[in-house]
Amino acid sequence: MSDTPEKEAAEAAEGVEAAEAVEADDKARFREALERKARAARSQQAHNAGGLKLKGGSGPSGQGRTFRRKAG
Predict the structure, then answer these.
(1) Please, what's the largest Cα pairwise distance for the chain?
(2) Rounded-to-integer distance, Cα 72 and Cα 67, Å
(3) Which residues contact 56 (CB under 8 A, 6 or more apart)?
(4) What is the DSSP letter of 41?
(5) For residues 27 and 33, what is the distance between their CA atoms, to the nearest angstrom?
(6) What is the pLDDT of residues 39-67, one digit of tens each?
(7) CA–CA distance, 19 with 7 (Å, rounded to integer)
(8) What is the DSSP annotation of the chain?
């Protein structure tokens, strides 16, 4: 037989509550992932900040030498 309108409304409300709980769970996981990403970026910035001010201050220059044949 068919359910009463009160039962159907109660079941629909339970379904909505379950969907909201799942959505809240997804949002919490997303926030946690963003926080991990931001934390990693901050630690990388701190690591890079401790380096030299000038990049390539010692060692080979950025350009390689070019050799050309004499034309004459």
Answers:
(1) 105
(2) 15
(3) 62
(4) H
(5) 10
(6) 888 888 777 776 666 666 666 666 677 78
(7) 18
(8) -PPPHHHHHHHHHHHHHHHHHHHHHHHHHHHHHHHHHHHHHHHHHHHHHTS-SSTT-SSS-SSPP-------
